[in-house]
Amino acid sequence: MKKTSIISPSEKNITSENFPVASWVIPKSLRNDIVTLYNFARTADNIADNPKLSDTIKLAKLDQFDSAISASSVNRNQPLAIRDMIFSLKKTGINISYCINLITAFKQDISKNRYKTWLELINYCQLSAAPIGRYLIDLNGGFITPDNNYYKHSDALCTALQILNHLQDCKDDLNELDRVYIPEDIMAACNTSIKDLKANRSTPEFQRCKIEIIDRVDKLIYDSEQLPNKLKSKRLAIETCVIINIARALSKKLRIHDPLVFRIKLSKLHFFWCFLFGIINFSRIFINSSIRWRTSKHLV
Description:
The chain is mainly α. Helix content is about 65%, strand content about 0%. It contains twelve helices and no strands. The chain is globular, with a radius of gyration of 20 Å.
């Protein structure tokens, strides 16, 4: 993505994310809309993280995003990311609340740089991560059986990925943005503190804190495993299986390695195996679902 005057020098782009963005698994007709949402979110996120802008200017720019999306109003003075997003929302009919929630999360990043409890962090992820999954589900046709309660499985997966990313970047977030997503109550329970994030390697206390967070993330990943067989789109179900495997692999790697020594990330080989086993997992789900359907039909 090209840098503009409102974008900070972030190195993040589609290819550097922990998860696939508009991969070939998704129908080609939907990929541009997914990229549009990604560019919209990345542009707004970069505003919130730009060290060269004052908080007042950041909020004013994000208010521009908020107002434009809420009014579905396009003009030439808007950043391209806003205009493209509005056109996409009008074309697809996707609920604008997903974009509004993302903007709310980026505004929160400006005004809030510490989280007291796990619940506070989860509530933040409901704004910053969950809307992405819900958008993708709606874009790909929703659930086999319409039930809004199924969104909770998507929320769990998106939240898990978000918190794993917080652990990956915990040192840089503190040093560069003075932002800490690790809940203070968990740090206190493990006898660690924010100052330990500045060390060259984890203390035993911070290691316990990290493991406690990963244990909670693993429960979220487990909760997300029911999502693929609820989805109407088989292609999205395949990609979801892949992403669940990515989350598992990243969780295991963060559990073993120290994010204060170097940034923990998956290799291309890791991604390949996650993709391969994602397809295998989907095949098992599809076969088991077919067997259950045939059995129930026979019983009737």
